[in-house]
Amino acid sequence: MRLICLVITLFFCYISEAQVDFSVQSQEGCVPYYVQFTNNSSISGTNGFYSWDFGDGTFSSIENPIKIYPASGSYDVKLVINATNGQYTDSLTKLGFITVYDLPTADFQFLSGLSGCKPLELPIQDASVPSGTAIV
User: Where are the domains of the chain?
Assistant: First the structure.
């Protein structure tokens, strides 16, 4: 009589996937627009490699970079994270995430002559040119 034993060993591996996310304090401003990006991903610090694409042909590998947008426009921003152990890569693209406006042009026009008696009241008209947002 032969006895045959079969032993099966199961190995379960749990590989945590990165949850990629990022934020900025404000998504819009005037040129030149300074933006501090904050990595809010589940992988941070020395646990990952970061690749930012700011949507204007510039890139960064810093975890929380500062970017200056020198031209007006709407910009897609992408963050790619690679785990240092090489187990996974994940990315997130936010379309139209940053909006940069040209600087407004402030101007006014006098509606009547510049002469008269004291107190002189001069009616003026706003001739300012906004750039995407209201002039305050």
Answer: 22-101
Q: Which amino acid is at 110?
A: F
Round to whole Å and give the CA distance between 119 and 46: 69
Q: Which residues of 14-29 are buried (b: 16+ CB within 10 A; e: fewer)?
A: eeeebebebebeebeb
> What pLDDT, on the 0 to 100 scale, is given for residue 80?
95
Sheet hosting strand 48-53, strand order edge to edge: 28-30, 89-101, 73-83, 48-53, 59-60
- Tens digits of per-residue pLDDT, 29-79? 999 999 999 999 987 666 789 999 999 999 999 999 999 999 999 999 999
Fold of domain 22-101: Immunoglobulin-like (2.60.40)
Model's pTM, two decimal places? 0.71
Which of helix, strand or coil describes residue 46? helix
The CA distance from 104 to 44, in Å, is: 39
Distance CA(73)–CA(93), nearest Å, equals: 17
